[in-house]
């Protein structure tokens, strides 16, 4: 299986939604733009939260196994993906790519 790099490329905070709907958190996401993780053998890298991993796991495992070309012509590099975590208040977008 191939190694896959996961890089945080954007992080957004929706304050108006947080104020309206969210209960206070004890700890917010600590991932910062530029943080990078490596999945070996399609496994979740240490330090990557469950919510982010759940959103990207199918893409990471497929890329690790040699797959790609998700949704036809979605990505410029057909062996990559752009996936966001499932936090609707503070989504982080991750660029996922095979490491040659």
From TrEMBL:
InterPro entries hit by this protein: CHP04076 (IPR023811)
Protein name, UniProt field: TIGR04076 family protein
Domain of life: Bacteria
Organism expressing this protein natively: Candidatus Limadaptatus stercoripullorum
NCBIfam families registered for this protein in UniProt: TIGR04076 family protein
């Amino acid at each position: 299986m191939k190694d896959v790099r996961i890089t945080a490329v954007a992080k957004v905070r929706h304050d108006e939604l947080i104020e309206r709907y969210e209960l206070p958190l004890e700890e917010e996401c600590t991932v910062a733009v530029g943080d990078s993780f490596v999945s070996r053998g399609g496994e979740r890298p240490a330090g990557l939260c469950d919510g982010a991993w759940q959103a990207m796991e199918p893409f990471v495992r497929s890329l690790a196994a040699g797959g790609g070309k998700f949704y036809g012509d979605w990505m410029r590099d057909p062996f990559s993906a752009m996936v966001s975590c499932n936090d609707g208040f503070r989504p982080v977008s991750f660029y996922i790519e095979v490491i040659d």
